[in-house]
Predict the 3D structure of the following.
Amino acid sequence: MTRTLRLGTRGSALALTQANWVAERLRAEGVDVELVTVSTEGDRSAAPVAEIGVGVFTSALRDALAEGEVDLAVHSYKDLPTAPDPRLRLAAVPTREDPRDALVARDDLLLAELPPGATVGTGSPRRATQLRALGLGLEVRALRGNVETRLRRVAEGDLDAVVVARAGLARLGRLDVITETLDPLQMLPAPAQGALAVECRVDDADVGHLTQSVVDDPASRDAVTAERALLAALDAGCSAPVGALAEMVEDLDDEGRAVTRLFLRGVAGTARDAVSRASAIAETTAAEQLGRDVAAELLDLGAAVLSGPERQ
């Protein structure tokens, strides 16, 4: 690759950290990379994501890529709409960070130690729904802002705790503030949480092949493919109360030999302000069908999620 690759990213501290991670791996292969910051609607608005819609953190980046202003774009994968963009292709899914959610609470409290009525901030309907379903009597408050802004709300006593993605804290070097990493049995993360998506133009084969060979992690790609297939089958956007986590597990085939398969768990809010849960296991080559199968079971169990424009 003789030309300098322009790598598009949002301007937040977390987005720049993620983009630099990708850039450094390309530079290690002798590729010149220049970071290009793109302002998105989500960066300019203080409204809840559920109100301003899916794609607010990604559409401007995607447009810049499609129009040739940048050659690659790095996204937090969970922010991407499930509907494909025919102008672009997924060049790589890098090795995924720990996808679990993390609690940052006053006085180093664990989730179960927060007293009834304690205020917990989150900008995610998925987290809010699962927190309420635990029956701990917590007061869940809507929250926007970057990671540091959210942490400050606890430090200044405005909130008793916040729930954020552990991956973001890891990439920012702030794992020290976590008081509890939440078990997926308590709270399933967002589909593709902790994963990055690196996109290129659909007709830019050279950049696509190079990026995939250097940055892509097949196991991470399989896992998030199953999770996002579940999200798409529920006709839900990234702001819907849906959680999913796929993991590689050891299993036995019909002859008793050890094989690696994909285990997917899903959760979705119901009309009764509760949650439904489902899980299944499949071959790694059947990731998309696995997601659709678990979604179908969730619907049978009463899942009620947002649809239509939310996923565009």
User: Anything to note?
Assistant: Residues 306-312 have pLDDT under 50 and may be disordered. Residues 218-233 form the longest helix (16 residues). The CA atoms of residues 108 and 179 lie 5 Å apart. The longest strand covers residues 258-269.
